[in-house]
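Task: sequence design from structure.
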């Protein structure tokens, strides 16, 4: 099957880890031609059912803190709605009206104003780090600060680090566990996503919240795949995040990420559509332009659907462009493995047929196969 690359993401496979607005985001990517894999990484606990949030809310009503930091718009609005369900909306509004309200970004600012409150300050960068610098500069020894959390804490939860720094500076921190998250009830999709990253059968994985990042990393660690996952994300699969707060856990693991200039869902979809083609490596092989994607191979601007065995072969050859790969090495990467190198010959023959460009893969007698790079590409390869 062949498809002309009329859309910027046609031929690319993009994973979505979001649970909220996932269908909307998928539509934005699919309109640009992407094949979308959905693997929700978190499950949101309904606020009205969260006894810990109610306890903290009553504490704040009884004894308003000096400062309240609102980190997300959805979280602040949800807090107000939950308080209304408990009959505490009016008293919580009065308590917050006595505090200094800081908003991390415009969405949090909008939620504060929607509650008939006014923020004292908000950073232009929408960065938690700038909020932290602002507080540390003015001095917070003995100051009681309520911080709206993004979700449950974990070793990769950036807001937990934010609270720790405040405590080290002498503040009395009151965590507000708004829209607490847990891992999804069905872990199969996130496990399949991790497997897809390890086999490089997707081109890009997207994140719209730090809890989703933390959840996937925790699952990889619990299943003994964290080192392999981070290695794959550093070298083979692109990571796109909606903003710096979401990307922060990856920074600690030295996993490179990119993000749009505006931290919005639509901007993230446009960013992925710009970034993946820009990063694409095109080989000139056997007289054809060849690019290996997550689930297909693009030959002369057309997407060719290839079997899993064929994708394993072409990925291995493309990882060593122009160099001979033995039949034994190719056999090792075939799904199902085995010990009969005839399976490699069959996979290569079917791959050539699927590509419609048999000369792109050259047989090297008694040695194996190689991607038949034209001389210009061979000259660019490091020795």
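Answer:
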């Amino acid at each position: 099957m062949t498809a002309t690359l009329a859309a910027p993401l046609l031929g690319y496979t993009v994973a979505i880890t979001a649970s909220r607005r996932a269908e909307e985001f998928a539509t934005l990517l699919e309109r640009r031609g992407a094949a979308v894999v959905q693997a929700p990484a978190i499950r949101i606990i309904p606020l009205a059912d969260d006894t810990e949030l109610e306890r903290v809310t009553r504490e704040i009503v009884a004894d308003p803190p000096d400062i309240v930091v609102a980190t997300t718009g959805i979280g602040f609005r949800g807090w107000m709605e939950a308080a209304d369900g408990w009959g505490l909306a009016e008293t919580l509004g009065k308590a917050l009206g006595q505090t200094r309200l800081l908003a991390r970004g415009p969405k949090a600012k909008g939620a504060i104003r929607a509650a008939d409150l006014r923020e004292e300050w908000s950073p232009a960068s929408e960065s938690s780090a700038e909020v932290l610098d602002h507080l540390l500069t003015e001095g917070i020894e003995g100051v009681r600060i309520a911080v709206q959390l993004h979700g449950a804490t974990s070793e990769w939860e950036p807001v937990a680090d934010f609270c720790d720094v405040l405590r080290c500076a002498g503040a009395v921190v009151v965590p507000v566990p708004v829209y607490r998250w847990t891992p999804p009830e069905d872990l199969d999709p996130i496990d399949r996503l991790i497997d897809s990253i390890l086999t490089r059968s997707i081109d890009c994985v997207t994140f719209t919240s730090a809890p989703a990042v933390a959840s996937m990393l925790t699952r990889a660690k619990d299943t003994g795949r964290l080192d392999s996952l981070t290695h794959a994300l550093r070298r083979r699969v692109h990571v796109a995040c909606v903003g710096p707060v979401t990307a922060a856990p990856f920074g600690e693991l030295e996993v490179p990420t990119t993000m749009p200039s505006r931290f919005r869902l639509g901007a993230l979809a446009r960013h992925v559509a710009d970034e993946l083609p820009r990063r694409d490596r095109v080989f000139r092989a056997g007289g054809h332009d060849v690019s290996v994607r997550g689930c297909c191979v693009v030959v002369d601007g057309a997407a060719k659907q290839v079997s899993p065995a064929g994708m394993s072969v072409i990925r291995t050859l493309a990882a060593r462009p122009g160099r001979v790969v033995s039949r034994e090495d190719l056999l090792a990467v075939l799904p199902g493995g085995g010990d009969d190198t005839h399976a490699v010959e069959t996979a290569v023959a079917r791959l050539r047929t699927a590509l419609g460009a048999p000369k792109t893969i050259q047989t090297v007698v008694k040695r194996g196969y190689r991607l038949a790079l034209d001389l210009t590409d061979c000259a660019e390869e490091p020795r």
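The first strand starts at residue 2 and ends at 4.
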